[in-house]
Amino acid sequence: MRADAKRNYDKILAAARAVFSEHGTDGSLDEVAKRAGVGPGTLYRHFPTREALVDALMRDWTDRVASDADAAIATDLPARELLLDWFEHFVEHITLRRGTASKICAAMDDPASPIYGKCRVMSDANRRVIDHLTEHDQLRPGVDPENVMRLVSGVASVADTSRAPLDVTPMLQVVVDGIVRD
Q1: Which pLDDT value is given to residue 72?
Q2: Which of 13, 38, 63, 89 lies at a C-alpha separation of 20 to 30 Å from 170?
Q3: What does R_g of the chain's alpha carbons equal in angstroms?
């Protein structure tokens, strides 16, 4: 990438972080371009879709997700506490910016989406945590990590679309109680 193109790319990402923090991931792309000091054509040359821009903003996100899964697996916490902590981190990750949860949920089954790779990272991290607990016989039989991910993603979507801050812990406790062995 040429130096001027790299500067524009970086300015667009910085502007998108600001706009999406203020207005969610459905914030105006024209506003992103304006704040970056570039034209809409420059924005779209770098990021042909909104999802491509969200994907670029989430690059370091994958490292944090994987790290949180590793940390969950390495703890000595009982299954209920481990899962509740993991799910709370999961919700934090998926609600990174307002509107991110719906974009991630929509991309879960869409390999053509630029965000699909991030969904796979989230799915793999969740699978590792669930498989770890399954191997230690701490979950009910037949717990499917993909279904668990969809349930927790649903909780994240509810929190993401709530008009006021929402405590997701009681909802996550229902999920945990449904999958942990008595």
Answers
A1: 94
A2: 63
A3: 18
